[in-house]
């Protein structure tokens, strides 16, 4: 219930008695003593009645309370709507951002799904050292796809009409040996572009330890997390 301090009570009292006072002054003159007393009594009774109905009545205060609660509920409802909209907007934005990031990492043999079973037509394995037949750089395989898995806008310039069939052949993600001085650090190539070589243990790349724990004489040994993704390699 709203709190009324002394100053507010005084202001209310002055307002309540302003109109009766005006009436009293206008009626005072031109009447005898008995009439003035009666008029004063009527004014006091009327003012008390108005005050009682306005500030001492439970119904009046109940009405004020209902009005205050309705405003409070409206304000709270608006705040809840705003909060709901903010949560929806930023949650939706975050979800879309997360979806885009997940989609980005599903390309170029970087998908986190388990590659099992492994089709027999995929010749090479994760951890094998390769050399690119045309560009001559060496590197190590860190992932594969059963066919090219990259945005279409990147495939079109890479595979002209005469080589469109290469899009449906196995593709491998390669960490390029930095010792070759090649400009790129990674590559995504079709199976026909590479050949496996042995006896080359040292492949210099800053991410080697992330993917591999050592070399067994024929290929690099996958870290446990990578082995889970390629259990048959």
UniProtKB/TrEMBL annotation:
Record's protein name: FBX21 protein
Gene: Fbxo21_1
Upper classification of the organism: Eukaryota, Metazoa, Chordata, Craniata, Vertebrata
Keywords: Signal
Gene Ontology molecular function terms on file: DNA binding
Domain spans labelled Hemimethylated DNA-binding: 121-223
Keyword ATP-binding carried by entry: no
Domain of life per record: Eukaryota
Gene3D superfamilies: Hemimethylated DNA-binding domain
InterPro entries listed in its UniProt record: Clp_protease_adapter_ClpF (IPR053189), Hemimethylated_DNA-bd_dom (IPR011722), Hemimethylated_DNA-bd_sf (IPR036623)
Signal peptide range: 1-18
């Amino acid at each position: 219930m709203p709190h009324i301090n002394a100053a507010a009570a005084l202001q209310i009292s002055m307002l309540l008695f302003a109109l009766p006072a005006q009436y009293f002054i206008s009626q005072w003159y031109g009447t005898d003593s008995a009439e003035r007393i009666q008029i004063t009594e009527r004014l006091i009774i009327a003012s008390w009645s108005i005050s009682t109905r306005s500030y001492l009545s439970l119904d009046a205060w109940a009405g004020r309370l209902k009005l205050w609660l309705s405003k409070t509920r409206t304000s709270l409802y608006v705040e809840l709507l705003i909060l709901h909209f903010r949560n929806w907007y930023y949650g939706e934005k975050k979800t879309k951002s997360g979806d885009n990031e997940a989609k980005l990492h599903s390309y170029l043999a970087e998908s986190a799904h388990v590659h099992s079973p492994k089709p027999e037509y995929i010749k090479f394995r994760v951890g094998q050292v390769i050399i690119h037949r045309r560009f001559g750089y060496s590197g190590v395989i860190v992932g594969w796809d059963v066919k090219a898995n990259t945005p279409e806008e990147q495939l079109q310039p890479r595979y002209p009409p005469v080589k469109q069939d290469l899009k449906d052949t196995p593709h491998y993600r390669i960490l390029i040996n930095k010792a070759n001085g090649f400009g790129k650090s990674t590559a995504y190539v079709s199976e026909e572009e590479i050949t496996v070589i042995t006896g080359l243990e040292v492949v210099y790349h800053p991410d080697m330890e992330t993917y591999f724990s050592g070399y067994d004489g024929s290929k690099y040994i996958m870290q446990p997390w990578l082995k889970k993704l390629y259990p048959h390699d």
